[in-house]
Amino acid sequence: MNTKGTHIEDLFQKTFSSAETTPPSDLWGAIEGSLNESNVDMLYAETFKNAHVRPSGTIWKKLSYSLFLHGFLQFKLQTFNVYYAAITTIIGGVLGYSLITEETPAPIKIVEHTIQEIHKTPHSIENRSSVFSIESEGYSTEKLAQMVELEDIETQLKPEIMRPAIVSDKNSNSAANELNLMNAYFEGNPIVCKHIDVEYTLNGIPSEYTIAWEIDKKSVGTHTTNKNTVTVNWSKPGTYKVIAKISHKNASALLEYPVTVEEAQIPIVKGNATVCEGEQNMLYQIDEPVNKDLRYIWMSKYNKIEMTGNKYVNIDWIQSGKDTLTIIRIDNKTGCKSQGNFVVSILPKPTIDFSFAPLGDGNFQFSYVGPTQRGMTYLWSIEGVEYENKSIEHVSSNIGSSIVTLTVTDKNKCSNVIQKEVPFNKYLIQVPRIISFDENSFSNQGFIPQTNTPLKQYKIEIFNATNEKIWESTLLENGKPAEPWNGLHKGEPIPQGRYFWRISAIFTDGVEWKGIPQSNGECKPNGILQVLEN
Amino acid sequence: MFTENEILDGCIKNNRAMQKILYDKYASKFYALCLRYVHDKAEADDILQEGFLKIFTNIHQFSREHSIEAWMRRIIVNTALTHYKKNVKHYYQKEIDEVKEIDIESYNIEEAEFTQEELLKIIQNIAEGYRVVFNLYAIEGYKHKEIADMLGIDEATSKSQFHRARKIIQERLIEVLKEKQS
Questions:
Q1: Does any domain span residue A10?
Q2: Which residue of A26, A46, A255, A285 sits 20 to 30 Å from the alpha carbon of A95, by its own alpha carbon?
């Protein structure tokens, strides 16, 4: 007869490989409902991915869901529903930000710190200089990224004062020195960025003089003049001159102001492009020399940046996936603003847990629980002892519980650590399994259970193979079993063989001893004692 | 009748009618599968629902040169394993208790017949760890190495759990036979 495994496997294989059981009739309805909901979620995320204004997720989803249920909308992400999205966005816009409710974030504070008042001249480019500091109070950085736009950022251009170079106007018959230009000075920025409006003002010119501005049209996008002020928007980098032609009666002279136009530099990020989820305080920096006129706004879609506003930041990689760091570079000297991106892959840390099982005699088995990959390494730290296998055995003699630490590192060198307080040797009673009552043997102290936690109540009974009770004891001393069994029954040494013990015990803190842990997770308060030949 | 390709195309486009056709075609088969991994029907309902949601949301990733049934089956099995892992508290990898000895010689399992319900009842009532390993090895046909990777246990543990499961099942089969004979 063959009752070996193969037959059992065949039996189950044959029965179940083509088995069918009809699921409950309402299950499809549940799946359909979940599909509708997840599609609405997906659609919401897709539709408003880059939107500045979003209608409330709850309202949008309720509306969409009911439209879907009534068959008015179809789930076609590619073609769908531009109109619908647009309409809801407009509604959202009309109703305003009050509708952006779902995860109402803490309000963002854009605080302007006035640094200093600069020249109180009526023509100063900025009569106030300011620096943004962005304080995020639990605000999602994704939202923040939406809020901070390059255009919205003010720069801190400080106009400088400069004596003009006075040159004779070759087209004039009169000499320049016939004009009183002793007090003339320019106010403006000698180094500026292209594509921003910069004002140049000529002061100290007698009011009866006329000023005509001469700007090289090839290098200028636009310029407007207003007697002694010209506003210029330079279109390409280079070195130029702002020239004012001063005339009075027959005399004229040219006053020149040299300007260097620069291009905005894209910030280049230096730092790890591949990191592990959970890594903290990782340093990233902009790859250029420190310059007090430069500041940077760093933004992350999902992770946490210490927004120091300068060249160096520390980032905590909280969420795995791909994240894009957006860095806005602001040059307060030239007014240049630019934006750079840096994509970081955040590898997930291994998901870990561990199980433990008592094996008896103070020996415990600890096993990693979680998906196993090639190249994983394990480091256990238990009571000051370290182990490096996936499954380990540890002998403990301490009383009470201990902290067990498991660190798992995967092939990408991403680590995860778990710490658990393991009460592995509390409430333990160890009972010998084999004994010899020979005086020369290792157990000549007799048969006595050991405990590592004091007992307040205790009873041990020994039975022979015919289920006759042959010995019992309830004696405790300092909470420990005090009376060993010397292998005698009615004054005679017992024969070798199998005997059975049964213990009931209560620890001093009132916990009842459940028994010796078994492989199936249950505990047995009884067991077999093998007595060897005396 | 729709061809498999038409059904899959429809599912990719999120066509509810096509999704329903796919569901109707395989739900009974997979429900029977789910029932083998769990204690009760409510849990099997959850796994089937979650499994089909995963199927529908990932169906665009399915490569047509493979069998759709095998692909879906794998998803359902993985979903069942995820449920198992959520519930599992301890793995005990050592067999230290004595196995109850049954006089197996006097029962001829090989020639006996068991209904699907009887076998399902047996499999549903053995300890969770044993049940999962037995299902994966004996019925789904995974190798111990694969099972070890799927469950995050040692290969040796998978083997020992399987042997233990087989022994328990053998005992239960005999118990069923005994009942039948009496």
A1: no
A2: A46
Interface contact B29-A38, CB threshold 8 A: no
pLDDT tens string A301-333? 777 786 656 788 888 888 888 888 888 898 888
> What pLDDT, on the 0 to 100 scale, is given for residue A505?
93
Mode of pairing for the β-strands spanning A274-276 and A337-347: parallel
In CATH, what number is assigned to the domain containing residue A473?
2.60.40
* A277 and A343 fall within a common domain: yes
A76–B138 C-beta distance less than 8 A = no
Least confident of A235-239, A361-365, A413-417: A361-365
Nearest-CB residue to B27 (from A11, A23, A524):
A23
Residue A60 CB partners (closer than 8 Å, separation 6+): A44, A54, A88, A92
| A 64-103 residues inside an 8 A Cβ radius of B | 75-76
Evaluate whether residue B98 is within a structural domain: no
Please state, for a pLDDT cut of 90, what percent of chain A lies above it. 10
Helix residue ranges per DSSP H, A165-263: none
Query: How far apart are the C-alpha atoms of A487 and A464, rounded to whole Å?
Result: 11
Shortest distance between the Cα of A394 and any Cα of chain B, in A, equals: 14
By Cβ distance, the residue of B16, B97, B104 closest to A518 is B97
Measure A103 CA to nearest chain B CA, in Å.
Answer: 26
Phi, psi of A458 (to 5 degrees): -160, 140
Whether residue B109 is found in the same domain as residue B47: no
Is the pLDDT reported for residue B99 higher than 60?
A: no
pTM strictly above 0.90: no
Contact A356/B90, CB-based, under 8 Å?
A: yes
Q: Do B73 and B108 have their domain in common?
A: no
CB-based contact A16 B139, cutoff 8 Å:
yes
Site from A20, A21, A78, A422 to mutate, B interface, most B CB atoms within 10 angstroms: A21
Tokens for A499?
């005997």
Reference A421, options A378, A369, A383, A365; nearest CA is: A383
Q: Looking at the complex, does the CB of residue A354 fall below 8 Å from at least one CB of chain B?
A: no
Distance CA A428, CA A517 (A): 10
Structural domain boundaries enclosing A67:
29-99
Decide if A1 touches B, using CB distance below 8 A: yes
Do B129 and B75 share a structural domain? no
Phi, psi (deg, nearest 5) at residue A183? -95, 5
